[in-house]
Amino acid sequence: xxxxxxxxxxxxxxxxxxxxxxxxxxxxxxxxxxxxxxxxxxxxxxxxxxxxxxxxxxxxxxxxxxxxxxxxxxxxxxxxxxxxxxxxxxxxxxxxxxxxxxxxxxxxxxxxxxxxxxxxxxxxxxxxxxxxxxxxxxxxxxxxxxxxxxxxxxxxxxxxxxxxxxxxxxxxxxxxxxxxxxxxxxxxxxxxxxxxxxxxxxxxxxxxxxxxxxxxxxxxxxxxxxxxxxxxxxxxxxxxxxxxxxxxxxxxxxxxxxxxxxxxxxxxxxxxxxxxxxxxxxxxxxxxxxxxxxxxxxxxxxxxxxxxxxxxxxxxxxxxxxxxxxxxxxxxxxxxxxxxxxxxxxxxxxxxxxxxxxxxxxxxxxxxxxxxxxxxxxxxxxxxxxxxxxxxxxxxxxxxxxxxxxxxxxxxxxxxxxxxxxxxxxxxxxxxxxxxxx
Length: 438
Prior knowledge:
alpha/beta
């Protein structure tokens, strides 16, 4: 059934015709990935995104990245920064895992976005690039202070006093979260809430000082202040349980998307946004093992809010290589991805014999009915542990309820980091000796 419903992709411009037809007039297209380090996923998302911009009028890309880091890219592609080259615009992505955004495929896309915007006369038709994540606690505090220093020095003094609550923990938000979660010291919760409330109270005054530029700068500052509030809560609850911290993070990303919609609606009616994040964030959690234990995610929240105006697209692979680390904050390695396990969607797709294909999963798809029983699905994040493959990287899901379509790339290769470490160069075993390495 999958073989009959699959739409093969051969590397031509027409590969995504059927997917764009399925997308139709949807305003939100969520493009996932089964790992944070696979070239084919990044390249496919970039190609689809370009077509959504050119053919369907999408004007925003929201990604699983920190707000201030992505904002530097946004300023560059709008020709509003001092960065001279696309690689310079990626300079804020210094936090592990840097290869998620400092890689060759993202670099190509940023260059394309700059060229596209340079050729677009209408400011409202130019494409923006935005981050949704909440790890940038200190970078966002600095961004709020920089903004207030320019527009309201007295308010900046008050903000510095409030944010000084974090000074005892340096640049280590986990240390703050640990002490706050156990009430060792009084938390900074009320201070960050007060700062956001004050900033919003002055919104009209700040945002109207210099037309659209002032409005954009205020929006950037407000989102950073909101991020600080949510990041404080995230680090405070991360030691209390995975479900609570996961839900808070995905709620923040969904709220950021909502705020972005409201901001863009002031410039263009019914803005269209493409979202890049991991499958685990963008596939509807209600159809997964995670949802059964109480987790929600961006895909679920977007579907609940926008219904048929949203399209969720997942990505899968059978084997190949991937850029990932062995432990958190360790160097990037080029690792061999083991062949998919028995009972998984990935093995089933491999057995079709089709190297690359798009599989529609809407109700009218014949394949949908044959895939409704739960199967294993693989998820590789920034850490890959092949020695504990089943426990570390698989969960049960009902794919037709999780996504509207899936793109399968049977064999994939590692995304190329802009900084290739010795570990990355040495990481791939010889093809003809795998798995023994003789």
